[in-house]
Design a protein that fits this description.
This protein is mainly α. Helices cover 45% and strands 6% of the residues. It contains 11 helices and 3 strands. α3 packs parallel to α8. The termini are far apart.
Length: 253
């Protein structure tokens, strides 16, 4: 086993899933007095702390947008592939936040069309800071997002990316993430271990900060928590929708 090449083996997430199962089984066996020791207790494969995700370069985002919008190569075959990537590029939201959006989560606030990222109707969010209102970028409106929403309503669809299937473990985002990471990016000659769908999130934060947007506003847009007991943390509730809309419009693509 030591001599085997493990590069194409189980991921650390899968390994930890197995270890958790063995731990539960042996904990049960110890209670039954079938064995005296649980050798799997607290055993866990540590994730690589140094492994980070890169942000896409501005030119890379422009190439991605061109392919997704024009679909010259025919690589975009489902609504979720088009709109999922576009929402990732222009909201910086997490994969599952985008994948689980319902049509009722597109709202108008203070005269601005917005996405409401919430945990209603069994939707899941990473933390309390993830619950937020994000203005819809003008480019998405120009590309016909509202018309697409109306089409979904006419056909009695509930979710924006309605062709994505749900799994208990991964929510709605699994297939979109796999397609983007394992199919789309390689075809675009952009595939690396550090560039994935989540990199779109890093990209928007990086670009907004480079454009001079206050860090607190950027955190409100992408759903990052604010430091406790700071003025920015208190004021974050006070950012109005037009402020966040103006910030998003500073994106260079």
């Amino acid at each position: 086993l030591i001599k085997l090449d493990h590069k194409n083996g189980l991921s650390k997430t899968s390994i930890n899933g197995h270890l958790q199962t063995y731990n539960a089984f042996y904990a049960w066996a110890v209670k039954r007095k079938d064995t005296e020791e649980n050798n799997f207790k607290d055993l866990k494969e540590r994730k690589d702390k140094g492994k980070k995700r890169d942000a896409f370069k501005t030119e890379q985002i422009k190439v991605i947008l061109s392919e997704v919008i024009e679909n010259n190569n025919g690589w975009i075959k489902k609504p979720s592939q088009k709109w999922g990537v576009l929402l990732g590029v222009y909201t910086g939201a997490r994969l599952n936040e985008i994948a689980q959006l319902e049509l009722t989560d597109i709202i108008e606030e203070e005269g601005v069309w917005c996405f409401s990222f919430n945990d209603e109707d069994a939707k899941r969010l990473k933390n309390q800071s993830s619950k937020r209102i994000v203005p819809i970028h003008s480019r998405l409106l120009d590309l016909g997002l509202l018309d697409y929403i109306e089409e979904c309503k006419k056909t009695k669809k509930k979710r924006l990316l309605h062709d994505l299937n749900y799994t208990k473990r991964n929510g709605y985002g699994r297939n979109l993430g796999r397609w983007f990471n394992d199919s789309f990016l390689p075809k675009m000659n952009m595939k690396t271990d550090r560039l994935v769908f989540h990199s779109l999130r890093h990209t928007i934060a990086t670009e907004l900060l480079r454009a001079g947007i206050e860090e607190a506003i950027v955190k409100d847009i992408v759903g990052h928590s604010h430091e406790k007991n700071t003025l920015l943390n208190v004021y974050s509730e006070g950012y109005i929708t037009p402020q966040k809309k103006a910030a998003l419009e500073k994106l260079p693509y």
